[in-house]
Amino acid sequence: MSIVTIASNVFSNEDLEYLTQCPQTIAAKDALTGSKVSYFNLPITASIRQSIKISLGLDLENVSNIPMRWITGDTTAHNDVGASAFENTYLVYLTDSPGEFIVGDKVHSIESNHAFVFSEGTTHFTQNTGDEPRLLLGPMNEFAEPVGRMTTIYYYNSYSDYQVQNGNTLGYQENSWIIGDSANIIGSGIGNYTNWRIAYIYGSNVPTGVFSNGFDLSTLGLGAYTFYLYPAAPCFLEGTTVLVSVDGQEKYVPIESLRKGDFVKTSRNGYKKIEVIGQGNIENPASDERIENRLYKCSTSNYSELKEDLYITGCHSILVDTLSDFQKEETIKHLGQTFVTDGKYRLMACIDERAKPWNSEGRFTIWHLALENADPKMNYGIYVNGGLLVETTSINFLKNRSNMELQ
User: Fold this and answer.
1) Three-class SS of residue 382?
2) Which SUPFAM superfamilies does the entry link to (predicted)?
């Protein structure tokens, strides 16, 4: 039999004001457009930590952030799941809402500053809640980790489609944490895409790396999260010039003018023919967030090798002689290990302190290229915009994992 504990007046008026009116909460509510749930985290204050201990019996002394969410509409009957085993679900409603919260066999009104604690495996849902968003602290487990219904994965053609969230999905997936699990995808499928990014959500701890079909999202430890995926695209902004050989003369040519068979100068292997060149789009935000899925400006003032400013995506690497301890740690966070191309370390633009987020908002055309190589998984160092050494991609990546339109 499920045991349900109810507590009222959990937080003080000052705590409620912080939880409901802070900038992160307002931004997360604005992000609800076209979506039913908006997840975010808030730093936990000493007074909130003490209130939770008194009302809910949780000692969160070693917790620095608490999971929050806005929800619109009814939730269907479900049992909470998380990234790890847990004993109880803890949640606090922070706003009043029409409708009812049904947990076990009891019906409860949804009132601000009321908390519920119930054991793992307890079925619960809401009904008659209408369209007014409601704010919750949690649902979380005893370790302040988010829990909820089994994850849903939405697949979009592009980051802009995710932002609009107008139903223009490739498909969506339920009852499975595995990316590209065709047995559980509802809709028309996910096309030929194999490589994905998780759309960044303001204030969340969503990782910004690249994940391939077959990856188990539960290993990220995010609990019962709703994931929004779109194809990955690491590249150069259109207009980037590449050092090539034209009629025996070295010159810098715009990347969009290059074609298969053109000769590109590499740092250690002479000239190599272009095997594949790809074109795509990226939606660039207006913020200064240092995330992978955006464009960065490498200015001539910060890179002496450049003759003109260079714009590349955050996951594109500049080739350098050494990495600082910070750069090594951040590279391992993003890629799992450090990598070397043509005797140089790969330093991603989003990690390189010299590269600055380019906060020009909009959709931009991006390009990438792969050069001939007996090993389709290998890449080269090439020179762009006057002499900065950067990486190409590999034939295998561009053909099978870039999600770009190939020339």
Assistant:
1) strand
2) Hedgehog/intein (Hint) domain
Pairing of strands 152-156, 227-231: parallel
Percent helix / strand / coil, the chain, rounded to 5:
15, 40, 45
Q: Which of 123, 280, 129, 319 is nearest to 197 (CA)?
A: 280
Segments of the chain assigned to CATH 2.170.16.10: 236-406
pLDDT digits (tens, 9 = 90+) for 256-308: 999 999 999 999 999 999 999 998 888 788 888 887 778 999 999 999 999 99
Q: Where are the beta strands (DSSP E) in 175-301?
A: 185-187, 195-198, 210-212, 227-231, 236-237, 241-246, 249-254, 263-265, 271-284, 295-298
Q: Of 173, 176, 167, which is closest to residue 185 (Cα–Cα)?
A: 173
Distance CA 134, CA 94 (A): 7
> Is pLDDT above 80 for 222?
no
3-state class (DSSP) for residue 220: helix
CB atoms within 10 A of CB 322: 9
Identify the CATH class of 4-140: mainly beta
Residue 314 CB partners (closer than 8 Å, separation 6+): 208, 290, 291, 292, 293, 294, 295, 296, 348, 349, 350
Residues of each domain in the chain carrying CATH 2.60.120.620: 4-140
Q: Locate tokens 């009132």: which residue?
A: 111
d(CA 22, CA 215): 35
State how far the Cα of 30 lies from the Cα of 27, in Å rounded to an integer.
Answer: 5
Residues 176, 333, 195: CA angle, nearest 5 degrees: 45
Q: What is the pLDDT of residues 285-297, one digit of tens each?
A: 888 888 777 899 9
Q: Which residues contact 379 (CB under 8 A, 6 or more apart)?
A: 341, 370, 371, 373, 391, 392, 393, 394, 397
Beta bridge partners of 236: 312, 367
Across-strand partners of 203? Answer: none
Query: What global pTM score does this model have?
Result: 0.54
User: Is-contact 63 219, C-beta < 8 A?
Assistant: no
Give the residues across from 71 on adjacent strands: 37, 134
Q: Which 3 state secondary structure label does DSSP give 139? A: strand
Q: What are phi and psi of 164, to 5 degrees?
A: -75, -40
Looking at CATH, the fold of the domain delimited by 236-406 is given as Endonuclease - Pi-scei; Chain A, domain 1 (2.170.16)
Rounded CA separation 112/232 (Å):
41
